[in-house]
Amino acid sequence: MSFETTYKKGSGESLVPSVMPIRIVDDRIVLLDQRKIPDSVEDFDATSLKDMCFAIKDMVVRGAPSIGVAGALGLAWEAKRLAQTGMATSVFLDRLGEARLTLESTRPTAVNLRWGLERIHALTGKENSVSAIADLMCASAEGMILEHFNINKCLSDFGAQLVGKQSGILTHCNAGSLATCGWGTALGVILSARLNGSEVTVYTAETRPRQQGMRLTAWELLQEGFEPIIVTDSMAGHLMASGKIDLVVVGADRIATNGDTANKIGTYNLAVLANYHAIPFYVAAPLSTIDPHIESGKDIPIEEREPSEVIELHGQLMAPAGVKVFNPAFDVTRANLIAAIITEAGILKAPYRTSIAEALKTLRS
Ligand code: MRU
Fold this sequence. Notes:
Blueprint: E1 8-9, E2 15-16, E3 22-25, E4 28-32, E5 43-45, H1 49-57, H2 64-84, H3 89-104, H4 111-121, H5 130-160, E6 166-171, H6 177-180, H7 186-195, E7 199-205, H8 212-223, E8 229-231, H9 236-241, E9 247-250, E10 254-255, E11 261-264, H10 267-276, E12 281-284, H11 308-311, E13 312-313, E14 316-317, E15 330-333, E16 340-343, E17 346-348, H12 352-364
Parallel strand pairs: 6-7, 6-9, 7-8, 9-12, 12-16
Antiparallel strand pairs: 1-2, 3-4, 4-5, 10-11, 11-15, 13-14, 16-17
């Protein structure tokens, strides 16, 4: 597979992404294996339910919006498989309900997974025959890929307005095309700012323990012709104090209705530091990352992952054997530390309870 550094114009006016984490090839769901980047660029076939669950849990595919689309595709392709067995509608619906729960349990924090599954599962009521239901689910899930690209582009264009003509930007984890199904959210803002004529220097925080910033964000930015600068997570304070950072922009895994935001572990540290140094701290995310059922960050479930992620490097133990480890994969940044939330409905400002409610209303209408 080859990757181009420019985005081409499609047949319509929309841009067609060239680095995509999820593709449909010959009716198979093909994921770009994000565990392998940048060492190698390999595909992972996730057409079966079992393979898709593994892929989400093991982070072959990762990043909240990409997980949402992957889950939706996994459910739709399972519907197609079940429909081909000729089972009765009631059994089909029961099995689909079970598949949805299995997929939803793979990763708990990113609300986009629940969002994508709910949206595809709701289609069971729209057709009568199992094959018609499965066809509708597959077409809708596949359509989510381009839909996400367009949403990301739209929110990024809003976000670009917040970037000055010459800016040092710090980002964390990976909120680029890989994490979002095209263009990116936090990285999308950076791409759009460059298209707007801004000269940006991008610092990408390593993002312990899975190194999404060092491995994926640096790789994506190089694909795009940037010259990213990698820093360890612990260098952020020094970087801000030395005047190199004009703004921080990150993605999100779940946003409560009061604006509290869960994102990759270490995000909260950056938000506190940015506020201390009077540097604007922005969150860029599609509206599907807002959880309308959660009033504050206290209610956001935080995934805890294997100790080995923290204490092993390439399978080699780096800590005393048997030591205890705490490995929360996300943290919550309180809304009062966030200068703006950048969405496809525009740039939301505090008080977030009001601006988020207004934005969700535009989505419904
Ligand atoms: O554990 P990951 O790699 O799935 O976590 C991803 C992040 O925290 C991203 O910053 C977040 O999903 C935003 S992606 C637009």
